[in-house]
Design goal:
The structure is a single chain. The two termini are 21 Å apart. This protein is an all-alpha fold. It has one domain. It binds iron/sulfur cluster. The site of iron/sulfur cluster has 12 residues, from helix 1.
Length: 244
């Protein structure tokens, strides 16, 4: 670190491990060790700027996605706010005393991974395209499909780690804002935000599958709000280098 003053210590601890889309490769020791790109600082900075724009666009899409989700759910007679917060909170807290892998949020994350696979299989079955959507993304949807697939299996292990951390905190009565549990939960929340934004685009693009897509959107939105109940301080966690 001594001869690399631009490196941000620990930035890789709470990132989404998507280095190809990261806007901070020039500040990340982990990336530079793995890619052996230590000497091409300018190239990395240009690469980072491009990726920063990609995520800015994606965060604007999330705002639109949330409006769309509320509208679509209302049209289909689904109330996305129907999570009974009192019951949900006590149940979610009770489950903190059990194995993190058995927690309802972890289980819901696993269900989400399966729903994603089922959606791709259903679209393939319905499609007349020769190549599978799993391996051949249409150019116009490439980025959104990449987002969904990259985070599909990322959310569950992050939630298990965050829940295990929260259980330890309960044991030692330590609820620091800057705890590993909050930081890990924040990364999971961000990946859910981005996945929701991507799914809202697919909802419009695949009208024949809108019921299935809407189920995924509602499921993921509920999981996201449950995580915000279990980790109320997670969004305020400051990730080294990634949050200003
Ligand atoms: S901070 Fe960026 S470059 Fe570093 S490990 Fe995370 S995603 Fe990769």
């Amino acid at each position: 670190m001594g001869d690399k003053p631009d490196l941000i210590p620990g930035i890789y601890n709470y990132c989404d491990r998507w280095c190809e889309r990261c806007a901070y490769t020039s500040c990340c020791l982990q990336f530079q060790i793995e890619s052996e790109e230590t000497s091409s600082g300018d190239a990395l900075q240009n690469f980072d700027a491009l990726n920063a724009r990609f995520w800015e666009d994606m965060s604007e899409a999330l705002v639109q996605a949330m409006c769309l989700l509320r509208e679509m759910a209302a049209q289909h007679g689904i109330d996305p706010e129907d999570l009974d917060k009192e019951t949900a909170f006590s149940e979610l807290q009770e489950n903190l005393h059990r194995n993190a892998r058995e927690h309802p949020c972890a289980a819901a994350a696993l269900v989400y991974s399966g729903m994603v696979n089922e959606w791709f299989v259903a679209v393939d079955e319905f499609s007349e395209a020769e190549e599978s959507l799993l391996t051949n993304y249409p150019r116009s949807l490439d980025e959104h499909l990449q987002v969904i697939r990259h985070y599909q299996y990322f959310i569950y292990p992050k939630l298990v780690r965050a829940l295990e951390g929260r259980m330890d905190e309960l044991f030692i009565a330590d609820h620091e804002l800057q705890s590993d549990a909050n930081g890990t939960a924040k990364v999971a929340l961000i990946t859910m935000d981005r996945s929701l934004a991507a799914w809202s685009v697919l909802y419009a693009e695949y009208p024949a599958h809108e019921d299935t897509t809407l189920s995924i959107l509602v499921h993921l939105d509920r999981l996201r709000r449950s995580i915000e109940v279990v980790f109320p301080a997670a969004r305020a966690f400051i990730r080294p280098g990634l949050d200003s």
